[in-house]
Design a protein that fits this description.
heterodimer; A: mainly beta; 29% strand; B: seven-stranded mixed β-sheet; globular
């Protein structure tokens, strides 16, 4: 049975104006500088971490940074609406979904859509309905039209962003005056029916300020609904109720409006996000995404432990046994320094470990989910869905079932507007350079049952759980090796696949991740597929350290 | 046909929601604590009654209750405790480490149900009387069995029927036993915990002359300095398949002994409960008269900086991922066993994981510590403004919190963000200059637990947006802008379909954790 009729809204979810209206309904926010990041020129890249930030109590009455400004500003825009996805058996499934409204090029390539201000605050006059798929030349009838080139749409800025002509005319701003004003038509052109499964990928760095704008474009397939959508940053420590995305405890944006969520990046870890409106419905229907926070240690030069000790100099980044929720106290003295990974770039880590033990060469976010086709069918009609009998029949890694999990590039699906849309941007192909290590950032958002993922071949080393390093209060690592992990919806975990033994894991070998919940190795009626993907050991990996890269033997 | 179904669905939903709203409007402030009965001798009976559900149904159930009045009730700050002839969960048994515990169980189930019993996993139990069963000594219909054990180690544990558990536990025969440590480390009554106690006292400038009672059963969950806490709550997770209960009811009057044959598979639960109640009933008071057989609630409150002990128990047959919004939980112990990295009892060497989702597993318990401080939000959640009278000093301790003056209104404020604005333009008496522009309030919807502003506490909210906040009509919501204006965090099963009650959303395994500013006096006694 469904919920929230308009009458209910009039009863409970009352809206009032007590504050002067400020601006239009659709807008984006991506300031180039803030109190925390005062120098706009430094906010378009990640500076090295050189020590705890120095503060001074200025004339304004609050602390302002005066030295060692760490992190930068990141921005992203997403749509809240609906769309269609293609299941492993070829059937098309209706989604309540979020879609990308910034970083379109990166999203189409399997990367996070999160951008620095100098990229986000750019405009495009050439976007058309169905983008980025339309500009990339994907037309109906060519499905499954991959692998796809993204040369047709090099745009990573904010969809809709346009010069604020009124502000220019009023002398408040000089051209181009990109102050967050948007062209609503472009947002609707691109945002309607652009739902993705999983929802757009986000990645930020510790010390970043993150501005996430949710633009509610409505659900054209369900004109009977007046659904708000929200973003719940699942697992954020010391969250604010206001930006927690729970509609019962905060505000939720109506159709036709934008709401910008604001957070200073929390501690490094693998988090995830989802809509919190009627969760059994909106999560089952596909409003589930991934977000991870990269550690300060990725920006360290010199000994890692010294850098972790330096972090104790700022109470915000301090973490020791006096805080019962501290997960990465300083480890025993060691000589680990930050070197170069197998891709020839500076070493990356999952956490601020201070001993280099969470180093990896490639990283892949993997989202575990399940779809009940009956629920999705009823969800496309005007009928209420039942919750008690919910039974998943599609078991999804990054929104796809095997064999689609090993198809490179984004999946495209024709929707009711007759256009092809990129529906499932993320494959689940794990390319590991020979002798290297892969970090799997695994999040489970299933709403009905626990699922297990096993590694056939390469042992899993679990280094983090629920976005926290596994370490005791005395500084000893509590990592463990296993060949399977079991997660509920609402849990995340960090696994390192260590292929450094090149005798066991030589180049051009293939291993598998699959579920031992054997009934989940199916795609609805097909007794084949499901929660499974491939791990490739590559002579070399080019094109980046995550999805969209290429494996050469 | 479709239209008819739709109308029916809407009318039922609206009826339910209207009832829920009415409950919210009339219910007094209801908080939680860990209420139970004290021993060390407990005279229990297994009996039958009906449990109420928020969809209006009454479910025939079995449960443990008191056959005679118990020795006492705890915590003493809750005055209106009762232990009826049957309740779900069973009475929470509160004992102290080292006590010799005796439980006399009388079987008042229908004869057709046959024998019943209690298992106390984690204790070395001897039994007398009754009849030998598979797992333990059982009480035959109408008679009594006695279990005895020494509460050797502290912690939270489950107790439940050891007889035909697939049926009897499903029917409601389960409860919790809490063993308090025989001694409490001095760390738990000094330093920051002494300051937290002072902040709750009548000397606090946030509520001068009014003291918050201490609702703890003890100051530590274990005799270990890592197990100190300032508040505590218990959460017992279970689910019910109404078909099983209906078949048990139909067979309960059969004139024969141990002849009940109720299929417990296939299992399709429709009710998902915390402490025996579904949302929103779980947010009504402990011992509320409308729930004579479901006395315990789930409605946690806390102040920033307090360490909150969660006693989490899986009581049904399914696992439930219990997601705590707002922060992580440090797992202290599992099944009453502290998780440490060495055997030292004085060193801070906790080794349990930090979880934002604490999976409940049937028969398993977790003790964990949660807190919320607002650290690192990068804006002042109290809306302090250096240009107004609302400025208070914030002097950071070694961890960055304002703890030097326990009586201060802004005790335990995170100081690095003190006075730092959130919004680009001023709102009310709260300064502008921050990074964010909030949208026109006409284009968003407000929830019933929204405190009325982005700010914590009535003082800040009134300064920011006036006396009603942005959620009128004032005082008709569950988190009033003029009185509480807390930060509400949803705590719920993340198998999201379990936050429903018999196919209706919202319901089931769901509650709100309210983080309240110091001005709001938390009274867990209802």
């Amino acid at each position: 049975m469904r919920k929230m009729s308009p009458l209910f809204f009039s009863l409970v979810l009352v809206v009032i104006m007590t504050v002067a209206a400020s601006g239009q309904s659709f807008q984006v926010q991506c300031p180039t500088s803030t109190i925390t990041h005062p120098n706009a020129a430094n906010n378009n890249s990640e500076p090295d971490y050189s020590g705890p930030t120095a503060f001074n109590l200025g004339t304004k009455g609050y602390l302002e940074p005066t030295g060692n400004v760490n992190g930068a500003i990141k921005c992203q825009q997403i749509s809240g609406g609906d769309g269609f996805a293609t299941m492993g058996d070829g059937s098309q499934t209706y989604l309540f979904a979020f879609g990308p409204l910034s970083g379109l090029k990166d999203m189409a390539e399997g990367k996070p859509g999160t951008q620095f201000p100098d990229v986000f605050n750019t405009t495009s006059n050439s976007l058309v309905p169905g983008d980025p798929a339309t500009s990339n030349g994907i037309v109906a009838g060519t499905w499954p039209g991959f692998p796809l080139s993204t040369n047709g749409l090099p745009f990573n800025g904010a969809v809709g962003l346009a010069p604020d002509a009124d502000a220019i005319a009023a002398g408040l701003c000089t051209a181009p005056c990109l102050d967050g004003h948007v062209d609503t038509r472009q947002i609707m052109d691109v945002g309607v029916m652009n739902g993705n499964m999983p929802a757009p990928l986000m990645a930020i760095d510790e010390d970043d300020e993150f501005f996430l704008t949710l633009t509610n474009v409505g659900q054209v397939m369900r004109p009977d609904l007046f659904e708000q959508h929200t973003v719940h940053f699942h697992g954020y420590p010391n969250a604010s109720a206001f930006y927690d995305g729970v509609p019962d405890a905060s505000v939720a944006i109506n159709i036709g409006g934008s709401f910008t969520y604001y957070y200073l990046a929390p501690d490094a870890g693998t988090y995830f996000w989802h809509c919190h409106i009627t969760p059994p419905e909106h999560l089952q229907m596909g409003m589930v995404g991934q977000i991870y926070v990269r550690p300060r240690q990725n920006r360290v030069t010199g000994p890692l432990r010294d850098a972790l000790v330096a972090q104790q100099g700022d109470p915000r980044t301090k973490c020791d046994r006096s805080d019962i929720l501290c997960s990465n106290p300083v480890p025993a003295i060691n000589s680990a320094i930050r070197g170069t990974d197998k891709l020839g770039t500076s070493q990356k880590y999952a956490y601020n470990d201070g001993d280099g033990t969470t180093a990896y060469d490639v990283e892949y976010p993997l989202q575990i989910h399940g779809f009940d086709p009956n629920f999705h069918f009823v969800g496309m009609t005007f009928n209420p869905e039942g919750f008690t009998d919910m039974k998943d029949k599609y078991f999804l890694l990054n929104g796809r079932s095997y064999p689609d999990t090993v198809t490179p590039g984004p999946l495209a699906t024709q929707t009711t507007d007759g256009l092809m849309h990129f529906s499932q941007p993320l494959p689940s192909i794990i390319n590991i350079p020979v002798g290297g290590k892969a970090l799997l950032r695994i999040a489970d958002l299933d709403v009905t049952e626990y699922q297990t993922l096993a590694s056939l071949g390469i042992p899993m080393t679990v280094v983090g759980y629920n976005a926290k390093l596994l370490r005791d209060q005395a500084g000893n690592n509590l990592y463990y090796k296993t060949n399977s992990i079991t997660l509920a919806g609402g849990e995340s975990l960090d696994v390192i696949l260590d292929a450094s033994d090149t005798a066991k894991f030589p180049a051009s070998s293939v291993f598998y991740l699959y579920t031992p919940n054997l009934d989940h190795l199916s795609n609805d009626a097909e007794n084949f597929g499901g929660l499974m993907t491939e791990v490739h050991i590559c002579g070399s990996v080019t094109g980046g350290n995550t999805f969209g890269n290429q494996c050469a033997n | 046909m479709r239209v008819t179904n739709m109308k029916k669905a809407i009318s039922q939903t609206q009826l339910f929601l209207a009832i829920m709203l009415a409950a919210l409007l009339v219910a007094p402030a209801a908080f939680a604590a860990v209420p139970g009965i004290t021993g060390p001798t407990f005279n229990l009976r297994a009996g039958t009654e009906y449990l109420t559900q928020p969809d209006g149904s009454a479910i025939y159930s079995w449960g443990y209750g008191c056959s005679v009045a118990p020795t006492g009730y705890a915590p003493s700050a809750i005055a209106n405790g009762f232990c009826s002839n049957m309740q779900v969960p069973g009475p929470t048994l509160i004992v102290t480490q080292g006590q010799n515990v005796t439980v006399n169980l009388t079987n008042n189930l229908p004869a057709a149900a046959g024998n019943t019993s209690i298992l106390f996993p984690g204790f070395n139990v001897t039994s007398s009387g009754g009849q030998r069963g598979v797992l333990t000594q059982e009480a035959i219909p109408g008679s009594t069995v006695t279990y005895s054990f020494t509460a050797t180690t502290p912690g939270t544990r489950a107790y439940y029927s050891g007889t035909q558990g697939d049926l009897q536990v499903e029917m409601g025969l389960y409860g919790a036993i809490i063993v308090l440590p025989s001694s409490v480390p001095s760390d738990c009554t000094s330093g920051i915990h002494a300051s937290n106690a002072t902040a709750q006292s009548s000397s606090s400038l946030a509520h001068p002359g009014v003291a918050e009672h201490d609702f703890r059963l003890a100051a530590a969950a274990y005799n270990h300095p890592g197990a100190c806490y300032d508040r505590e709550y218990i959460f017992q997770f279970s689910e019910m398949d109404p078909r099983i209960h209906q078949e048990a009811l139909q067979q309960s009057t059969r004139n024969c002994t141990a002849c009940m044959t109720v299929a417990t598979e296939p299992y399709v639960p429709a009710y998902f409960m915390i402490n025996g109640r579904s949302m929103p009933d779980d947010m009504d008071p402990n011992y509320a008269p409308q729930y004579p057989h479901q006395p315990y609630n789930g409605n946690p409150h806390m102040h920033p900086g307090e360490l909150v002990l969660l006693r989490i128990i899986g009581q049904g047959r399914w696992q439930h991922p219990f997601h705590e919004h707002g922060n992580h939980v440090r797992v202290l112990a599992r099944d009453g066993n502290l998780i440490l990295s060495s055997t030292s009892s004085t060193e801070l060497n906790l080794a349990g994981p930090l979880l934002f989702t604490t999976t409940t597993t049937p028969g398993q318990t977790i003790d964990g510590i949660y807190y919320w401080t607002g650290k690192g939000l990068n804006w002042d959640p109290y809306g302090h403004n250096s240009g107004s009278g609302s400025t208070l000093p914030c002097t950071p301790d070694g961890n960055g919190y304002n703890t030097g003056a326990p009586t201060a209104i802004n005790y335990f404020e995170w100081c690095q963000d003190h006075n730092k604005p959130l919004q680009a333009t001023p709102i009310g008496d709260v300064a502008g200059g921050g990074p964010v522009t909030l949208p026109d309030p006409n284009i968003f919807a407000n929830g019933p637990w929204f405190g009325g502003s982005p700010y914590l506490g009535p003082e800040a909210t009134i300064r920011a947006v006036g006396s009603t906040g942005t959620t009128p009509p004032s005082g008709t919501i569950a988190n009033s802008p003029t009185d509480e204006a807390g930060f509400a965090f949803m705590w719920h099963s993340h198998n999201e379909r379990e936050i429903t009650t018999n196919n209706i959303f919202p319901g089931g395994m769901l509650m709100m954790m309210l983080v309240d500013s110091r001005e709001f006096v938390i009274n867990e006694s209802n």
